[in-house]
Amino acid sequence: MPEDMPPAAPQPEQSAPEQGGRFNVCIRVKPLGAGGGGGEKERETAACTHTVAYDANTVSLVPRKAGVNAAPPPWAKGRPTTTTQGKRLAYKYAKKVIMPSEDQEDTYTDTQMDSLVQAFIQGYDVNFMANGQTGSGKTHCIFGPPTVDWTDPACAPDYGLLPRAALAMHHMLEEARESGGHTYVLVGSMLETKWSNWVMADLLCDKKDVYFNAEHEVVGAVE
């Protein structure tokens, strides 16, 4: 190796992520008072036939009335089920159920976000997403509650998965820079996607339209 060539960038001590398209699923039970578009009031109507029960490994639909059968909700299709005395239909999840009593730091740990960050630093493509209906807690989980102030360090305990992952990534790259003298460049974009007709808007440029080209690359987004 020529003397003027810099050494290879140091890699975190972390095994490579599992291959083969495997992914982990966690259920985050939204804390009451977390805010969101769905409102926070608990209400029962004549059309409400089931309540939801949960523990660390299972989400269950419990009939409120005798003789009512539990039908799988959309998020449970294809999941293994167990029935207790014909009254409860429980859905088993591969990873775990994150209780409403657990805070944002617990959620970050339970979803193993640090392993995704470390894999990204090693050069692997990684992805995480939140799926759920309006008001179910996606924004709270990914970003934090509506009251979070990004300029106030006192709000750090309320940070969701995304800012925590970004800060962890920045910390790892800064350690690599200080220990090995390497310089890294991070590039990012922020897009809003409407899957019904594949329309995308750039949130960093007054929601201007962007699009996929024939190679499935995003064209027109601000970096």
TrEMBL record:
Coiled coil, from the record: none
Domain Kinesin motor: 22-223
Listed name of the protein: Kinesin motor domain-containing protein
Statement: the UniProt record of this protein carries the keyword Nucleotide-binding: yes
The family this protein is said to belong to: Belongs to the TRAFAC class myosin-kinesin ATPase superfamily. Kinesin family.
Amino acid composition bias (Pro residues), ranges on this chain: 1-10
Biological process (GO), any one: microtubule-based movement
Origin: domain of life: Eukaryota
Pfam families the UniProt entry points to: Kinesin (PF00225)
